[in-house]
Amino acid sequence: MANTESAGAEAAGAEAFAVPRYPVAPGCRLNVRSGPGTGYGLVKVLPEGVRVPINCQKPGTRVVGPYGTSNLWDNIGNGQWVADAYVNTGSDGYVAVRCS
Residue 15: inside a domain, yes or no? Predict the structure, then answer.
């Protein structure tokens, strides 16, 4: 029984630190860049309908997208950045910590 309780506590702890996922604008395939700007290399292209985690955010190249004009870029993984103007965060500002 102790193993089950321990496993449950670990799962609850993991959920407490889960990074929220936000939807990419409908009908958009989103470029993922190696840094916070359009001048960085293309890492991959996300398909339509995905939700992305935002680990942290940082200013970069100004981009016009479905959710306005913004210089905010979202870190979605190691060396993976997307323009916040294409992500429905419900805010024009930071929704995650600033990247260092």
Answer: no
62: nearest Cα among 47, 51, 72, 76:
72
Q: What is the CATH number of the domain that holds 43?
A: 2.30.30
Task: Say how many CA atoms lie within 13 Å of 39 toward its Cβ.
Answer: 3
pLDDT tens-digit map of 55-70: 999 999 999 999 999 9
pTM to 2 decimal places: 0.82
* Containing structural domain, residue 97: 20-100
Given the structure tokens 């870029």, which residue do they identify? 73
Query: pLDDT by residue (tens digit) across 77-98?
Result: 999 999 999 999 999 999 999 9
Does the residue 92 lie in any domain?
Answer: yes
